[in-house]
Amino acid sequence: MSSALRSIFTLPLRSLSWLGSQGTRAVAAIVFIAAAVPPLGALLRPYVTEAILVLLCISFMRVDLTALYGHLRRPALVATATAWTTIGVPVIVGLVAHATGLTDRAPGLALALMLQSMASPMMASPALAALMGLDATLVLVTLVTATAIVPFTASLFASLFLGGMLSISPLTLGLKLLGVLAASLLAATIIRRLFGTEAIQRHKQPIDGFNIIILFVFASAIMGDVVGDLMAQPVFTISLAALSFAIYFTLLAVTTVLFRRIGTERALALGLMVSQRNLGLMLAATSGALPPTTWLYFAMTQFPIHLSPYLLTPIARRLTRTDISAPAVVAEKLEARP
């Protein structure tokens, strides 16, 4: 009987392990499969919040506490990167949106851009950085600190820049964000206590595979209408896709340049984190009550998010072998700076 039970669990575990071993290829494939099968979007859209909670839980569950404490003892670099992604980016986007009149001419798009800029980095950013051979620990620590304060910064910037564009108040947005993060952290803590850190590390590939499945659920839920929108308004849809790529790579490039003193490879890791915004968190906090243009833009952002790790991996791996632009001592001095 026990061998029969083992065989029942062996096949799913092997399947998840295989899926997890596909890495960036699987992440890239998700976006095309999700867009190509619209009925899945209608089927899975009611479960967006649950998918986001599971993704957050998996990420919190896998936090390396030792590495986290080590970086927090040298907070200058982490504090600078956190301030850039949670304060610098939304301030710049908000000012540009108002200066160009975008909030009046295209409020749905302005709302999308502001929610994108206010969001914390994606919880999958450390895993993607690791798959690309970049410094995942630095990304993880900055991600944790940015996520911890985003309920407060998002509430502030919503009151400053969004006015009445949101269906909920800035305070409610902040409280909902805090609730989603707290619930995920609590669930992750319980799982770590029940199974232990060693078991989680030992089953890394099956967990990666399960993470990819949940990413697929999320991508399908928000991309279910992409094909219909493309057929109905092709120019507008393609323009939003181009804009999403432009913003993604602008954030990546600007962040890499700003932090180049710590070494190109580590700066690229931070650039990847800053450009990968956790729009799912904003969807959960707003319960998906957003204008159609905002939904469509969010769907278009999935293309650069899922494709860039696959496209950038060769560059990242070359940097890890040849990066001599900034010795490690520079990074250590910056991290040690009071």
Description:
Helix content is 83%, strand content 0%. The chain is mainly alpha-helical and 338 residues long. The chain has a single domain, classed as Na+/H+ antiporter like fold. The N and C termini lie far apart (61 Å).
Give a short synopsis of this structure:
The chain is mostly helical and 338 residues long.
Query: Distance N terminus to C terminus?
Result: 61 Å
CATH architect. name: Up-down Bundle
Percent in strands: under 5%
Main sheet overview: none
Rounded to the nearest angstrom, the radius of gyration is 20 Å
Mean pLDDT, nearest integer?
81
By secondary-structure content and strand pairing, the structural class works out as mainly alpha
- Tell me the total number of β-strands: 0
CATH topology: Na+/H+ antiporter like fold
Flag low-confidence runs: 324-338
Overall body shape: globular
Transmembrane segments: 44-63, 75-97, 109-131, 138-161, 173-195, 207-224, 236-259, 279-300
Keywords: Membrane, Transmembrane, Transmembrane helix
InterPro entries: Na+/solute_symporter_sf (IPR038770)
Protein name: Na+-dependent transporter
Please describe the topology of this protein.
Layout: H1 2-21, H2 24-36, H3 38-44, H4 48-61, H5 65-72, H6 75-99, H7 102-105, H8 107-118, H9 125-131, H10 136-162, H11 170-195, H12 197-202, H13 204-223, H14 226-232, H15 234-258, H16 264-275, H17 279-286, H18 292-322, H19 328-336
Helix pairs in contact: 1-13, 2-13, 2-18, 3-13, 4-11, 4-13, 5-10, 6-8, 6-10, 6-19, 8-10, 8-18, 9-10, 10-11, 10-16, 11-17, 14-15, 15-16, 15-18, 16-18
